[in-house]
Amino acid sequence: MMTKHRGAIVLVDDEIAELGKDLITADTLSRQPLPDHLPEDEELQEEVEHFVRSIVLHQSKTDDRLAKIALNQKLEPTLQNVAFYSKNGWLVKCQLSPLERSFYDVRDEIGEDNGLLMRGLRVIIPSNMRKDVLNRIHAGHQGITKCRARAKDHVWWPGIGQEIQDMVKTCEKCIENQPPKHEPLIPNDFPERSWQKVGKDLFHYEGSEYLVVVDYFSRFIEVVRLTKLSSEAVVDHCKAIFARHGIPDIVISDNGPQFRPSTTSDFTKFASEVGFRHITSSPKHPQ
Predict the structure, then answer these.
(1) Residues paired with residue 224 on neighbouring β-strands, in sequence order
(2) What is the DSSP letter of 282?
């Protein structure tokens, strides 16, 4: 039954209750769920099929590799004995061969799974395949810690940690890109008076180059804008600063081209003429 109220059609309470039985429970996104069968999106379907094919292909390669490992495990006498001991019980350690003893301490973790000799969840790699596995672990030239972490999730054999360490330490590419070791900071002796010891450096700020000179005693700073990045320009400004404050006994700087000591350097000649000692920091080791 329907009634009209101010131009609108309104259902009476009984009819509303009757229709309410057919309403679907509201979900998070709508008052009614979507149909069971959506129209297929051809592009999405193609992407899904490609993804599935890639997984199957990868799985096929993985299965082939595991089958090769299982075959080589069965061909290696030491691993054959280890597999036998894991099933039938281990001999006393002194009765084992030297190679078999390297498995003795982890004997409770060793077992077979689908024909593969495992230590826990890690595959035990035969000796003739270990070099190839090491190269795969170190393919990205990661450090010792990261390579060990990769191996810890998948593979194992006695002494694998030491072999990873030796491989990374002797890798030419890793040695070439290794950052320099941090040396301990060497504190400077505190001077007895102002402008006895000063430090200087160049810096770039908002498109301009500057020379900064700092007194080690008072921490007073002189900053000068440079029009040229040359030893001659640096010497000219140093002469003006020393004329105001006095000639220091020691001047400390880095090994920049403007300060680098040499017989032909303007700054070296300036230090000799004026009579101060010029000390430079070691390259790559400003500490």
Answers:
(1) 211
(2) B
Q: Rounded CA gap, 144 and 163, in Å?
A: 10
Cα dihedral 31/32/38/43 (nearest 10)? 10
Identify any residues that bridge with 155 across adjacent strands, giving them in sequence order: 123
User: Could you give the CA distance from residue 43 to residue 49 in angstroms, rounded to a whole number?
Assistant: 10
Distance, in Å, from the CA atom of 274 to the CA atom of 196, rounded to the nearest integer, reads 14
SS (H, E, C) 78-124: HHHHHHHHHHHCCCCHHHCCHHHHCCHHHHHHEEEECCEEEECCEEE
In sequence order, the β-bridge partners of residue 194 are: none
Nearest CA among 169, 219, 179, 226 for reference residue 199: 219
Backbone angles phi, psi at 204, to 5 degrees: -110, 135
Q: For each of the chain's 287 residues, which pLDDT tens digit applies? A: 444 444 444 445 555 455 555 655 555 555 555 555 545 555 556 655 554 455 444 444 467 888 898 899 999 999 999 999 999 999 999 999 999 999 999 999 999 888 889 998 888 999 999 999 998 888 888 888 888 888 888 899 999 999 999 988 888 888 877 776 666 777 778 888 899 999 999 988 888 899 999 999 999 999 999 988 888 888 889 999 999 998 999 998 888 888 877 766 788 888 888 888 988 876 655 55
| Contact call for residues 236 and 210 (beta carbons, < 8 A) | no
- CB under 8 Å to 80, separation ≥6 — which residues? 73, 74
Sign of the CA dihedral running 138, 139, 141, 147: negative
